[in-house]
Amino acid sequence: MDNQIAIEVKNVTKSFKVYYDKGKELKEKMLFWKRNRYENRIVLDNVSFSIKKGEAVGLVGKNGCGKSTTLKMLTRIIYPDSGSITMRGRVSSLIELGAGFHPDMTGRENIYTNASIFGLSKKEIDARMDDIISFSELGQYIDNPVRTYSSGMYMRLAFSVAINVDADILLVDEILAVGDANFQTKCFNKIREIKGQGTTIVIVSHSLGQIEQICDRSIWIKDGHIEKEGDPKSVHLEYLDYMNNERMDEEEKARVRQQRIESGLEDENRFGTGNVRCSNIKLLDVNGQEQGMFKCGSSITVNFDYHVIKPVENAIIGVKINRIDGVYVYGIDTRIDKFDNFNMNKDGKVSITFSDIPLIKGQYYFDISIEYSEGLPEDYIKHAAKFEIISNLEDMGVALIPHKWDVSNVR
Predict the structure, then answer these.
(1) 250-267: string of b/e by CB count within 10 Å (b at 16+)?
(2) b vs e for 347-373, b when ≥16 Cβ sit within 10 Å of the residue's Cβ?
(3) The three-state (H, E, C) secondary structure of 24-43, written as one string
(4) Which of 9, 203, 212, 356 is the most buried if burial means most Cβ atoms within 10 Å?
(5) How many Cα atoms are found within 13 Å in the side-chain-facing hemisphere of 190?
């Protein structure tokens, strides 16, 4: 590695597993143990760049392009799947401000703890203590527990520690907006001062103006690749042109979708791949007559057809009941009821009967769905069918629960 190079990134690739619908609780994991389908999403793909000592570089790009992932790999919070990253010198990061702070320790005690994480000895921290406290403007509160600090005080202290460790490399992720306006200006000027001292700086920010004021070079990351790098202003002009065109494309898509919704060609309450489409949804009473109003304790049959546009394997059919205010009342699907998953190769019909529904009077909706292998919707229709439960009873809540009072001993 060239002695004039502070950071060298070679052929770095990083991906993450993104689960479609993974259970978070033990109950969900046991009931839905097959619900583990995931996408292996490549965030950075064979990325290479180098940064000279004393150079300030900005990373730009839209959300999800890989900017912050790159910064976290430079700090060794995470590691690349392949490729190498070489750093020369002490590294300080303004990524997760306050990481390592203990709420019950005082501000002064947390300075010792946090600064030691950056590699400073106690002697070095003692030498910098006054500067850190002075910059944070927390003199009268520095010996109070940090749990008593406001969020602004907390961030000011964390920023003050991070920029006073005499780092060779400073990594900054959207942290130039700490505290009030005066303190923000102070932070910005401090970053400039650090750069003037020869520190290598890497900044991730959506504030292109800040990058242009501080950085010598910008790297535009797009879809996991370096799209362009060079003088910040020229790079930013192309980046802004791209973002403006993309915004116009999204607005056009939204306009077309709204037109389709208004014309009845598309429903904003409908989701899925469209490989299977449900239709002709009806609610029937015990006599097979289509109804929209049922008595408490009566039976309701949900009937619907489905049309197969593209065959679906391992399909699961589900029905949910929601109250009109969004309260989730009940849900069932063919997997829970121990049916084998279906292979839908041609059009068909579905019918499910709910006997003696004990719902309290009110308005409700049925949602219906056809999913692929417990998670990926082929066709999910919210508010597929609305119905009303009527009753002379004044019970409250959602369900009518049989009960018996004994008040013989009440005096």
Answers:
(1) eeeeeeeeeeeeeeeeee
(2) eeebebebeebebbebebbbbbbbbbb
(3) CCHHHHHHCCCCCCEEEEEE
(4) 203
(5) 25
Q: What is the mean pLDDT of the chain?
A: 85
250 within domain boundaries: no
230 and 278 inside one domain? no
State the pLDDT at residue 95: 74
Q: Is residue 165 part of a domain?
A: yes
Q: Do 110 and 201 have their domain in common?
A: yes
Q: How far apart are CA 205 and CA 57, in angstroms?
A: 11
| pTM across the whole model | 0.59
Residue-wise pLDDT for 205-248, tens only, equals 888 888 888 899 999 999 889 999 999 988 988 888 888 778 77
| DSSP structure class, residue 106 | B
Contact between residue 311 and residue 345 where contact means Cβ atoms under 8 Å apart: yes
- Read off the pLDDT of each residue in 42-47 and give the average, rounded to a whole number: 91
| Residues 218, 235 contacting (CB under 8 angstroms) | yes
Does residue 22 register a pLDDT over 60?
Answer: no
Tokens of 140: 């009268």
Q: Are 16 and 98 in a shared domain?
A: yes
Find the domain containing 16 and state its range.
5-244
pLDDT digits (tens, 9 = 90+) for 124-164: 899 989 999 998 888 889 999 988 988 788 888 888 888 88
Beta strand 169-173 with 91-94 is parallel
- 219 within some domain: yes
d(CA 334, CA 374) in angstroms, rounded, equals: 10
Q: Is residue 282 located within the same domain as residue 208?
A: no
- DSSP E strand stretches across 262-341: 270-271, 276-284, 293-295, 300-308, 312-323, 328-333
Q: Supply the CATH number for residue 385's domain.
A: 2.70.50.60
Tokens of 98: 């306050």
Alpha helices in 230-353, H assignment, sequence order? 232-262
Residue 56 scores a pLDDT above 80: yes
pLDDT number for residue 216: 92
| Whether 121 and 202 share a structural domain | yes
Q: Are residues 221 and 277 in the same domain?
A: no
For residue 255, being part of any structural domain is answered with no
Q: Are residues 63 and 204 in the same domain?
A: yes
Q: Is 127 helix (H, G, I), strand (E, B) or coil?
A: helix
The structural domain count of the chain equals 2
Q: Which structure tokens are listed for 286?
A: 């015990």
* pLDDT at residue number 25: 61
Write the CATH number for 194.
Answer: 3.40.50.300
